[in-house]
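Researcher: We're teaching a course module on how sequence relates to structure. For the next exercise, students receive a sequence and then see the predicted structure as tokens, so they can try to spot secondary structure elements on their own. Here is the exercise chain.
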Amino acid sequence: MVAGGGSAPDVILATEGLAIEFKGFRAVDGVSLRVKRGTIHALIGPNGAGKTTCFNLLTKFLTPTEGTITYKGRDITRMKPADVARLGLVRSFQISAVFPHLTACENVRIALQKKRGDSFDFWRSERVLSALDEEALRLLDAVGLAGFAELPAAELSYGRKRALEIATTLALDPEMLLLDEPMAGMGREDVDRIAALIRSVAKDRTILMVEHNLSVVASLSDFITVLARGKVLAEGDYATVSKDPRVIEAYIGVGHG
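Model: And here is the predicted structure for the students to work with:
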């Protein structure tokens, strides 16, 4: 009964006929998506394909004109972003805007306090704070930032800031992570580091990502959905979609290789 909204046990996130219209323009037009539990699923397409709009619908920053969104068999179409995040569906960089003047450790600690329902205060007992610090350091180590715990976030390189954002997102212990162009603006060394981090994070989570870097998509993704003009153009693994004549035409037609 996957066609009826993703109630199959292996489908964690599903959309049915998802659409949004802005003044007569359908930016997303009848998208039906199935994201399987435990996979890395990429959403790709040429500029203007509707990828970011689709992402904003999934994370509830936009409300669809038509269609439904189901997460773990539950209709979340009309839910607020914070309520969806509490269910375990978290968009990286959504919650975690890094505080530049706090250290990397303090940034992660704030996210841990949020998960516990604590207020963002800094006068709690040393025992409570040191327990949070221990968990924060474990998360920083997981994203390759163990040596930068006491450095203010503003002093981190761009790639390491993104790694810190992922650490603060992981502090919320999401079951599914949505990554919006995680490699944007990165040099090769940072791309390789973040790709390795995503692979590591995906071991016990589901990941849906929008990404322009097709070599990253090729190396990371289990399954790919290609959008063009707001519609699903093709689906499958990289070998399948990269050979699809419609996909080649969509990319080459707008100057993408």
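Model: If you want an answer key for the exercise: The chain has a mean pLDDT of 87. The longest strand covers residues 11-22.
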